[in-house]
Amino acid sequence: MISSQMLKGVLEGSILAIIQQKEVYGYEISQTLKGYGFGEISEGTIYPLLLRLEKNGCLTSVYSESKQGPKRKYYLLTEKGKQELEEFQINFKEMVKAVFDLLEIKK
Amino acid sequence: MNKKTKMLLKENNEFEKYNLSEHSKNVMTDIVCYLRGSNLSEYNQEVVRRDIDYMLSDGEKRGETAELVVGREYQAFCDEIVKSFPKRTIVERIISDVNNITSAISIIAFIWLFVKVTQSIVEGTSIFYLQITMGEIIGNMIAVIEAKVIFNYITRKAFEESKINKNKIMYFIHSWLKLTLLIIIPVCFYIFLKSPSFPIGMPVAVSIVLIPLMIGYILDKVE
């Protein structure tokens, strides 16, 4: 389980990574994150991040009908979102490497 | 409120009426009340409301309560939403505040005009010339300020008020006492400050109602 402090920092990038794979809605994102071991993350945690990413031009959204009932808001990655994701991947890998190296030295 | 916002508001009202459980409706009432007092534009408030409505309804279909869907901390949830929007500029905030104040002025002026015309008819005096007293001017100004204060208080305490379930009777009495006190202040000015008074013609009296209404209409278009 990843601690909530660390989780907060990487959640945004992870959301971009999920949306890059396919068009998804809020609940699907929370379930995908859970599947990857992020723990229980409610839509209430994800929604403000999605709004922010949308406002920054990283995402666009469309409302589509669902079989279960009400419409769902599906998110798509924009060109800016793709660039943000690439930057996140580079920065995160660098950070992980740095922390990993530090932990190795400590051993 | 502009046409686009009005339409979305109507859609959201309809959606909540037929698609949400009583519990989710109560949660939405608190959330919407809190967002009304936030920095979000009226349109963005309705966009967010629609998203949360869909989220809650979808959650109910899976058998999940509002607490599970958005988390237990509704206020924190709303604060995060507000933070995710770009801050409004000073001009945008001024336009919004002036719009709210003009709405309050036109409503209070309309009530005042209605009372005055009724009074004139009952007393058999001319309705084309009305007497406005200093007490009415000050009382109405206080009423406008009070309306803004009450609005801010209710929206800020949206989540706190719903938690007060322990003693509903005391809460009811307490709320009514506060409200009565607020009403008494402008009424006292009405009753006890009868002079000086000024005669105003009906066109001027109607203008006091219509001008703020027109300003509000124009500002709605700008917003």
Write structural notes for this entry.
- The complex is a heterodimer of chains A (107) and B (223).
- With 107 residues, chain A is an alpha+beta fold.
- Helix content of chain A is 64%, strand content 13%.
- Chain A is built from four helices and three strands.
- Chain A has helices at 4-21, 26-35, 43-55, 79-106, and strands at 24-25, 59-64, 72-77.
- A three-stranded antiparallel sheet of chain A has the order 1-3-2.
- In chain A, strand 2 (59-64) and strand 3 form a beta hairpin.
- The longest helix of chain A has 28 residues, at 79-106.
- The two termini of chain A are 22 Å apart.
- The model of chain A has no long low-confidence stretch (mean pLDDT 87).
- A two-stranded antiparallel sheet of chain B has the order 1-2.
- Chain B has 223 residues and is mainly alpha-helical.
- The N and C termini of chain B lie close together (8 Å).
- Chain B has ten helices and two strands.
- The mean pLDDT of chain B is 87.
